[in-house]
Amino acid sequence: MKIFLAGIMQGSLSTHAVHNQSYRRLVVEQLRKYLPQAEIYDPWSDHQNSLDYDDDHARQVFLYHNRLCGQVDLVLAYVPQASMGTAIEMWEAFRHGKLVVTVSPLEHNWSVKFLSDRVYPNWDAFFAELAGGDFLRWFQAARAAKAERAGS
């Protein structure tokens, strides 16, 4: 299982700054604990200085991450508020038939609503299903169903 951890970074900030990324450490810990077989790609871990990249390098990283979202098994997206970058990552996964799970209170946002296979209102709800095994069972069934539909 390959997981891309998508989530708001710059959002609508107009300054040379990013949103707090500390949630990523806990998410990766929980995923490793309950899905030890998973390969997790967290773009923040490799690109914490991305705001300082020159335009060519930043463009390469941006486009690489978008391509990667179409190749993984699951995009796990954190969208506490609108995020154009995360929406694009979700779209790439969606259009390539990959699963998208979103943690967001924005249940009426169309990107969240229509690109997600499953939406959790917060991390606690996601972690509860992860710890109880319900998430893994859902993932396996949903992945098999998507593969079957793609083969039809």
Describe the structure.
It is a single chain. The chain has 152 residues and is of the alpha/beta class. The chain has one domain (2-151): Rossmann fold (3-Layer(aba) Sandwich). 51% of the residues lie in helices and 14% in strands. It has seven helices and five strands, in the order E-H-E-H-H-E-H-E-H-E-H-H. The chain has helices at 23-34, 43-46, 55-69, 84-95, 110-115, 123-132, 134-151; strands at 2-7, 39-41, 74-78, 99-103, 118-120. A five-stranded parallel sheet has the order 2-1-3-4-5, with helices on both faces. Helix 1 (23-34) runs parallel beside helix 6 (123-132) and helix 3 packs across helix 4. The protein is globular, with a radius of gyration of 15 Å. The chain starts with a strand and ends with a helix. The relative contact order is 0.16. The mean pLDDT is 89.
Alpha-carbon distance between the termini? 23 Å
The pLDDT mean sits at 89
Q: Give a short account of the largest sheet.
A: 5 strands, parallel
- The side-by-side strand order for the widest beta sheet comes to 2-1-3-4-5
Q: Poorly predicted ranges (pLDDT <50, ≥5 residues)?
A: none
**Number of beta-strand segments:** 5
Radius of gyration based on Cα positions: 15 Å
